[in-house]
Amino acid sequence: MQKLSPFASNFTNPPIEIMKNYEADISNAVEVLRNGGTILYPTDTVWGLGCDATNEDAVQKIFEIKKRGESKTMIVLVADETDIMKFVASPDPAIFDYIDSVSRPTTIIYENAIGLASNLIAENGSIAIRLTRDEFCKHLIKRLRGPIVSTSANISGEATPSNFGEISNEIIQAVDYVVKFRQNDRSKSVPSAIVKWERGELKIIRE
After folding, report:
1. What superfamily does domain 16-206 belong to in CATH?
2. How far apart, in whole angstroms, are the C-alpha atoms of residue 127 and residue 121?
3. How distant, in Å, are the alpha carbons of 12, 62, 101 from that of 73?
4. What is the pLDDT along the chain (207 residues), one digit of tens a residue?
5. How far apart are CA 42 and CA 75, in angstroms?
6. CA gap 67, 132 in Å, rounded
7. At what angle do helices 16-34 and 135-144 cross, to 10 degrees?
């Protein structure tokens, strides 16, 4: 398996202790995810609540933590373009050119979701998927060998935290594992752009 370089954008020569903590975070988080648990983790946008996106019971736990109705769907993170084809029936090939053209993290709503937890899929069969370029998330997904839910780390209706320091204790205490990596990063992050790809047409949902 190809060795990922999670520190390229953050460190020139990462300290050994940081590398050890990073690997421990990945191992611990994957174990929790495989056992149907929930995690709090940094993403390519804001910190997210996550679980195995194919596990219906785990997805339900996320809804309960956020105190959110199942009628509101959540985002799924994948690591490679080939993953999109696993979870979307016959995606329009043109979407991959669009993905390559955008630099900002962008979530795309696709028609005809397959292979995911049923309570993640909207009533019309659509699903929101983001191809992440964040190395921590890519490493996590590849180690899990499956997609991960990503939804903002807040109670539904409350403000979205822009970094770990803004996340409430209620959320922190509700999950099964809290990733340590990047907890001290106080940079202000924002949610992804959201677009809808429907019948070959692109519609902007959130810029």
Report:
1. DHBP synthase (3.90.870.10)
2. 5
3. 38, 11, 26
4. 333 334 434 444 455 555 667 899 999 999 999 999 999 999 999 999 999 999 999 999 999 999 987 667 899 999 999 999 999 999 999 999 999 999 999 999 999 999 999 999 999 999 999 999 999 999 999 999 999 999 999 999 999 999 999 999 999 999 999 999 999 999 999 889 999 987 778 898 888
5. 14
6. 26
7. 40
Tell me the three-class secondary structure of the chain, residue by residue: CCCCCCCCCCCCCCCHHHHHHHHHHHHHHHHHHHCCCCEEECCCCCCEEECECCCHHHHHHHHHHHCCCCCCCCEEEECCHHHHHHHECCCCCHHHHHHHHCCCCEEEEECCECCCCHHHCCCCCCEEEEECCCHHHHHHHHHHCCCEEEEECCCCCCCCCCCHHHCCHHHHHHCCEECCCCCCCCCCCCCCEEEEEECCEEEEEEC
The pLDDT value given to residue 73: 81
Cβ-contact 161, 152 below 8 angstroms: yes
| Identity at 38, one-letter amino acid code | T
Q: Which residues pair with 152 in a beta bridge?
A: 48
